[in-house]
Amino acid sequence: MAERSALEGETQATLAAPSASMFLLTWVGIGVQSFGGGSTTLYLMRRAAVERHRWVTDEEFTRYWGIVQIAPGINLIGQAVLIGWRVAGAAGIAMALAGLLLPSVAITALLTALYAEVRELPQVAAALRGIIPATAGLGLVLTLQMARSPLGESRREGRVSLAVSLVVLLGSALTTWLTQAPALVVLWGAGAVYALAAWLQARGVTR
Prior knowledge:
The protein is 78% helix and 0% strand. By secondary structure, it is mostly helical. α2 (38-52) packs across α5 and α3 packs across α4 (75-118).
């Protein structure tokens, strides 16, 4: 597969694009392991695309996740589409979606049928209770990993940029927690704060 650019001007991944079979099997592996919700799946995506195979950089992965947050639809599918396009264009999108979704759908249908038979067992209820904190732990690890890239970039840009990033990070969390504001409002609000800060810095107001 030829290497592609996903968004104009983006740098190429640090390793050559994989073969079609390797790329598809990687996504199948993600789909098979995607227990525990979206945070688990996103963690697996990042580990495969950034750490293991280096198809995209950490900055690109985080940027893609920001893009899909402000678009309608299922975020994980959007993330798979952007990574697939980045690596192999339209064929990459098809392989990423097929590998991610088909195993997940099949396993979910099987487990749903099985759960109907064993849901009354106390061992099953106990196991389900244990999954929740584990999922939260994976989400915490993922949050720290994804926050590292934009905070590091802001730190290199200077103290003002870092301060804006920290204000947006903490302010978004507090706003969501205290006011139950819609996610779209929080996300677009954070984008507006960054845009305003960039405009002020370009005019020399924050220097």
